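Request from the bench team (R.T.):
"We need a structural guess for the complex before ordering more pyridoxal-5'-phosphate. Sequence and SMILES attached. Just send the tokens back."

Command: build protein-pyridoxal-5'-phosphate structure.
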Amino acid sequence: MMQRRDVLLASLFAPTGMAALATAAPSPRTAAAGLATLRAWEGGGEPSDEDFWGEVGRLFPVDRALVNLNNGGVHPTAGPALLAMERHLRTTQEAPAYTLWRELAPRKEGVRQALAQMAGVDAEEIAITRNASEALEILQLGFDLEPGDQVLATDQDYPRMLETFRQRERRDGIELVTFPIPTPVEDPAEVVRRYAAHITDRTRLILVSQVVFLTGQALPVREIAALGRARGIPVLVDGAHGFAHLPERIAELDVDYYATSLHKWLAAPQGTGLLYVRRDRIPGLWPLMAAPETSSSDVRKFEEIGTHPMAPVLAIAEALDLFHTLGAKRKHERLVHLRESWLAPVLEMGRGRARCLTPRDPAWSGALATLSIDGIDPVALSGHLWKEHRIFTVAVRHGTPTAGQSAELGFEGLRVTPSVYTRPMELERLVAALQKVLQHGLPA
Ligand SMILES: Cc1ncc(COP(=O)(O)O)c(C=O)c1O
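Reply to R.T.: structure attached below.
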């Protein structure tokens, strides 16, 4: 039987040749003019203001010959960030030992400051990593654990992060304890109760996803962090799908450890991520790659990874600039608006057969939504949407879905993720395609 990750991967790799269709970055002048237009916008840029969001869309050099509705996997880089990256890449090549190490690397400090400002935390608490996986593994592998110690997670945490703890089981003799959560969550306090119920006197670390990758379900991270802190257990927040997507800043979550990719919702270049560690916790956490003892209290010890490109790192600044131009709240409202624009009609058409595994309440969700249709295999559906309609989505499967069984133990569905550059017409194509499937089923 296919594993959850395989299903995601199977769908992800189905449409071959996508890379060949990529289009060029906007010119510097077009990007600057686009940003200026957005900043000077007369109206409020409301969630349904298509003129405003049309301008936003023009900043993304995406290929409109296909409809990309898997922006959760990895996001297209915002045009202004792509331009900046190209510029820094050229500078790097001029004389790398000088331009990369001496000219560009020091500029990273400005990006650290800008990220800290956006997150509402101190720059000395931010490390820039290559992705969420790296930031999370610094946390997951950075604590000394003894045989018999337990680490706690839900069974809907990201597979690579669960695998990281499984490797520690084999290597260090620890025990990974996972438990199911309701899908969708009707009462967020129930999730906190389940974490509390699984804590024992052997629990040493807790992992929590800010947003569950399978469904887009947001979890009560603040309360779970408080629960851990009250018991002296570090809570590691996987913010891969929360950062720059949900409107809360890291500071508002009141957590000690937070990790995310920046190439998802911030639309920064691929290969960028962030680790936040509360200042007084830095000395107690080992880096993944060795750093001198003198840097024990310095957040930069987590960045001791040897020579690596600065171009994507420095271009994070331009992605942040676009993020601030949109505003966290306005961006989230637009994403919920886009999600509802396809989901509401499809659920209405599929009444009795179609169900949403994601909460519709914007307090607990954003752009991602997972749709389950009785009698329709989501892998086949995702393949059909690509083959017949050039609409790119991803199928998800969790546990062993069984008819009539609680979605808590197993479910499957089609995960659809628009983003700020998605056009309403593109979602109308999705609705029309799903309507046909609801009426006639999938072609044999
Ligand atoms: C919840 C979650 N955590 C971690 C990751 C890993 O992110 P990355 O591949 O950018 O390291 C992902 C990727 O989709 C994710 O969804």
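Two things stood out. Residues 131-133, 158, 209, 213, 238, 240-241, 261 surround pyridoxal-5'-phosphate (CB under 6 Å). Residues 85-323 form a domain with the Aspartate Aminotransferase; domain 2 fold (CATH 3.40.640.10).
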